[in-house]
Design a protein that fits this description.
The chain has three helices and five strands. The strands form two sheets. The chain has a three-stranded antiparallel sheet.
Length: 104
């Protein structure tokens, strides 16, 4: 909170207005490749990004048809963590699936 500002005798003390900035947000993108299966992309979207089956399928089709799809929008730290999880799961399952992030 802001500091109390002393006023002249008889006046009420007030506080400076305090503002907090929202943290910058980042889009996490799934990138298309020729080897990762559509089913695995849907699984990643449902498990890591908490998408409904319908939303996961829609994003997966965007990845497949346009080369990339937005998996979600998060703070920097959350986006970096989700990307690391996706890369780990993809490597475990021998897929080259990659993610990227960009400012929202």
């Amino acid at each position: 909170m802001g500091d109390l500002i002393p006023k002249e005798e008889g006046e009420v003390l007030t506080r400076d207005e305090v503002t907090t900035d929202e943290p910058p947000m980042y889009r996490v993108l799934l990138l298309n490749d020729d080897y990762t299966t559509m089913d695995f992309v849907v699984l990643i979207l449902e498990s890591v990004f908490r998408k409904s089956p319908q939303d996961a399928r829609q994003v997966m089709l965007s990845v497949h048809e346009k080369g990339a799809g937005v998996a979600g929008v998060y703070t920097r730290e959350v986006a970096e963590t989700k990307i690391a999880v996706v890369h780990h799961l993809a490597a475990q399952n021998e897929f080259p699936l990659k993610c990227a992030m960009e400012p929202d």
